[in-house]
Here is the input.
Amino acid sequence: MASYSELMAQAQNLMAQAEQARKDELAAVIADIKAKMKQFGITAADLGGTASTKKTGKSKSSAPAKYRGPNGELWAGGPGRKPEWVRAVLASGKSLDSYLI
Here is the structure.
């Protein structure tokens, strides 16, 4: 019977192989999707997505902004998690009044 350390080494090796297989399959699927999109003239916008996968930093909210952060960030002040810059301002003991638009 194999020892614990031998079994763990085998498990790690299998996980590495599985991850490589996932990456290979993912690359093939993406290539196939891109080829079909080109063939049929489909854009990311046609799929209901955006053309860019990068975050733009823009709010998802349609509410007008009430606050402008120190680096130009906008926040409507609604419910939910506060942006990092708001939490930093409040943690430093400052008031958000000076950031009102």
